[in-house]
Amino acid sequence: MKQAIIFTFALILSGCATEIVSSNTRSVTVSAIYMNKGEAFKIADTECKKHSRVARHIPRDGEMSTLWTFDCVDP
């Protein structure tokens, strides 16, 4: 029973994970719940830095979305 509870809890948390959905030299799209906007920015900025760029958030209508899009721009 204890293992089932732990498994269920881990499964729920994995659904809240912040992760890259798509990435290229010019932009990054990150999946994150609304409360993790800061984490989404950190991940996007790290990805942009692979191309010597920095992340800039692109505001969208409906900011309650779970997808955050960032441009990778020159510093």
What does the secondary structure layout of this molecule look like, with pairings?
Elements: H1 2-14, E1 19-23, E2 27-31, H2 37-49, E3 54-57, E4 67-73
Antiparallel strand pairs: 1-2, 2-4, 3-4
Describe the structure.
With 75 residues, this protein is an alpha+beta fold. It has one domain (18-73). It is built from two helices and four strands. Strands 1-2-4-3 form a four-stranded antiparallel sheet, with helices on one face. Strand 1 (19-23) and strand 2 form a beta hairpin. The longest helix has 13 residues, at 2-14. It is globular and about 50 Å long. The N and C termini lie far apart (52 Å).
Report the strand count: 4
Mean pLDDT: 82
Sequence of strands across the biggest β-sheet: 1-2-4-3
Specify the oligomeric state: single chain
Which features would summarize this protein structure in a list?
alpha+beta, 35% helix, 75 residues, four-stranded antiparallel beta sheet, 2 helices
Short description:
The chain has 75 residues and is of the alpha+beta class.
